[in-house]
Amino acid sequence: MTDPVLVTHDICKSFGALQASRDISLDLRPGEIHALIGPNGAGKSTLIKQIAGGLRPDRGTVQFLGRDVTALDTAARARMGLARTFQISALAMEYTVLQNAVLGALGARGGVFRFFGNVLKDNDLRSAAEAALDRVGLSDQAGTVTGELSHGQRRLLEVAVALTLRPKAFLMDEPMAGLGADGSKRLTGFLDGLRDEAPILLVEHDMDAVFALADRISVLVYGQIIATGTAAEIRENPEVRKAYLGEEDQ
Ligand SMILES: Nc1ncnc2c1ncn2[C@@H]1O[C@H](COP(=O)(O)OP(=O)(O)OP(=O)(O)O)[C@@H](O)[C@H]1O
């Protein structure tokens, strides 16, 4: 088997008496979408934060591209190619769509902030940004102020910014939230093609999207992974149905 891109070993995290992550071990393999599902408060976001670098586990390790990155911060992991998307607040709302994408490309190069006039004249940065906008279908909005985009378009811009990092793996926390049926369908189609470029660890409540996209699904309940398997295996797992999916059948 090809080596996984991302591995967590026995991650534990408590907030006071609450154990939000209990011995979580999972991996993300080349070319796959691995979905992480579970009821509200199960600890999905807490796990993603520990993988991205924003939150330090109490115990356990995170390996990315064969390297132990547990002690590295978010920026260092991002420079290695670990892209986390859908932190909407990361977009500068008063800047144009192109400016946001150029900023992403500048960050990918490890550059420090310079005046936009100079940055926008940098052909490499500009073409990386334009190519990313083109891929998500936002080229026509390049000159639009980001704050004027629809919710769905902002999500696509987040993906474009992540693409400028030339990521080796994506962490996505509820990308479909608030998109509506059409928007989710469009984003589902886009993510489907994205897995060949870089595998995706996907936290998502939209079960249609999860079952349409995921090569593997892990189910988290009370901070613990109770099952990992294909969509068919997870659908039929009695423990999963009882703990989670069963809620939807009622
Ligand atoms: N910084 C924090 N301090 C204290 N408790 C926290 C903190 N962050 C998360 N928690 C708690 O940890 C548990 C897991 O939260 P988390 O947000 O990871 O769950 P989730 O599965 O992502 O939920 P949702 O599906 O609702 O987004 C919850 O009980 C939450 O209240």
TrEMBL record:
<keyword id="KW-0067">ATP-binding</keyword>
<dbReference type="InterPro" id="IPR003593">
    <property type="entry name" value="AAA+_ATPase"/>
</dbReference>
<dbReference type="InterPro" id="IPR027417">
    <property type="entry name" value="P-loop_NTPase"/>
</dbReference>
<dbReference type="InterPro" id="IPR051120">
    <property type="entry name" value="ABC_AA/LPS_Transport"/>
</dbReference>
<keyword id="KW-0547">Nucleotide-binding</keyword>
<dbReference type="GO" id="GO:0005886">
    <property type="term" value="C:plasma membrane"/>
</dbReference>
<dbReference type="GO" id="GO:0016887">
    <property type="term" value="F:ATP hydrolysis activity"/>
</dbReference>
<dbReference type="GO" id="GO:0005524">
    <property type="term" value="F:ATP binding"/>
</dbReference>
<dbReference type="Pfam" id="PF00005">
    <property type="entry name" value="ABC_tran"/>
</dbReference>
<dbReference type="InterPro" id="IPR032823">
    <property type="entry name" value="BCA_ABC_TP_C"/>
</dbReference>
<dbReference type="InterPro" id="IPR003439">
    <property type="entry name" value="ABC_transporter-like_ATP-bd"/>
</dbReference>
<feature type="domain" description="ABC transporter">
    <location>
        <begin position="6"/>
        <end position="247"/>
    </location>
</feature>
<protein>
    <submittedName>
        <fullName>Amino acid/amide ABC transporter ATP-binding protein 1, HAAT family</fullName>
    </submittedName>
</protein>
<keyword id="KW-0813">Transport</keyword>
<dbReference type="Pfam" id="PF12399">
    <property type="entry name" value="BCA_ABC_TP_C"/>
</dbReference>
<dbReference type="InterPro" id="IPR017871">
    <property type="entry name" value="ABC_transporter-like_CS"/>
</dbReference>
